[in-house]
Amino acid sequence: MSLKIILVRTQMAENLGAVVRAMGNFNITDLCLVEPKFDHIDEKAIAMSAGNEQVLKNATLCSSLEEAIADCQIVYATSASVRDMNKPIKSPEMAAKDLYNLKGKNAIIFGPERSGLLNDEITLCQSLIQIPVNPDFSSLNIAQASVVVFYEYFKMLSAKGADDISQEIDIADNAMRTVFFNKLEQVLDRHNFWRVPTKKPMMWRNIKNIFTSHHYTHQEMKTLTGIVSDILKRRTKYEK
Question: Is 166 within 8 Å of 104 (Cβ atoms)?
Fold first, then answer.
């Protein structure tokens, strides 16, 4: 298994550097940046990385979250609020246990410092990570949050012996989900499912949440895609 850290629209170079420093503390090297608001090798970021600047220099740059998570099986979004959607909510410790038991590449996402991730971005994730804090003083800096989350992941890896065998689950990656969603949306569009066009964005988000909140295996997602593909072909045949 491997873990990718994704930072979305990070606003301050110092915060990026601090997260990269924490990655070094807990032996995490895969960093992906989605539309950072500054040059990712800014001298302030390098200074705050405290000698771990190679992770900054090797970081992957993406123009969208969809692109960043395409090669990932399970994606966790860190969020201070639950939002109005049905997503499993896990503590950093629970998320770390899940990550340990999954093969392939998985990701943890941190949103912009001021606003956090958009609802449409959270929809792409399978679960939320929430850090239990004092409800009367719940604000955490992105660097502070990353240390807590990375620590739990590193602790889980360190606690397992070399002879331990994890429960390897063949989870579908997000590229497969994207193909499925594209075909499903075509089917729903052709069947005039939305009826009221203005309601489509919210309805579509809710539908996608149904399929991202469950850990579908590679075979399950292949089967679902096959079903909607067959419906799409039959619909196209009848329209001719």
Answer: no
What tokens does 37 get?
């608001």
CA 207 to chain centre: 18
In a domain, 165, yes or no: no
Same domain, 140 and 193: no
Question: Which residues of the chain have a pLDDT value below 70?
Answer: 1, 82-84, 160-169, 235-240
Question: What is the pTM (predicted TM-score) of this model?
Answer: 0.76
Task: Indicate if 83 and 195 belong to the same structural domain.
Answer: no
Over the stretch 124-146, which tens digit does the pLDDT of each residue have? 998 999 999 888 888 889 999 99
Spatial distance between the Cα atoms of 233 and 229, rounded to a whole number of angstroms: 6
Domain range spanning residue 119?
A: 2-159
Please tell me the predicted confidence (pLDDT) of residue 164. 45
Helix 142-159 and helix 13-25, axial crossing angle in degrees, nearest 10: 10
User: Across the chain, how many H-helices and E-strands are there?
Assistant: 10, 7
CB-based burial, 125-147: b 16+ in 10 Å, e otherwise: bbbbbbbeeeeeeeeeebbbbbb
